[in-house]
Amino acid sequence: MASSSKKKTTFAKMTRENKVRERRLTKQARKDERKRAAAAQPEQAPAGDDHLTDPDQDPVADVEA
Questions:
Q1: DSSP character at residue 49
Q2: pLDDT of 64 higher than 70
Q3: At CB < 8 A and 24+ separation, what contacts does 13-22 make?
Q4: Quick check: helix, strand or coil at residue 65?
């Protein structure tokens, strides 16, 4: 026959679980902060690709000149 009494959780286990919970929260907070910072920054084109995105510059005219 099984015992009907509850098993008690030790303080060491509760402390470990609290630390894990806190680490998860801080990790999620850092992740959210990185997402906010990335969303706040304007999109920038990579350097050196200006000739590909500049509508005033004609690549064919540069070759003929």
A1: -
A2: no
A3: none
A4: coil
List CB contacts of 45: < 8 A, sequence separation 6 or more.
Answer: 53
How many whole angstroms separate alpha carbon 40 and alpha carbon 56? 29
For the full predicted model, state whether its pTM sits above 0.70.
Answer: no
Output the six-digit token pair for 1. 């026959």
Residues 13, 19: Cα–Cα separation, whole Å = 10
Per-residue pLDDT tens over the stretch 12-48: 999 999 999 999 999 999 999 999 999 988 766 556 6
Please report the sign of the dihedral spanned by the C-alpha atoms of residue 25, residue 30, residue 31, residue 36: positive
CB 51 within 8 A of CB 59: yes
Task: Quote the tokens at residue 4.
Answer: 């009907």
Residue 5: the pLDDT is: 79
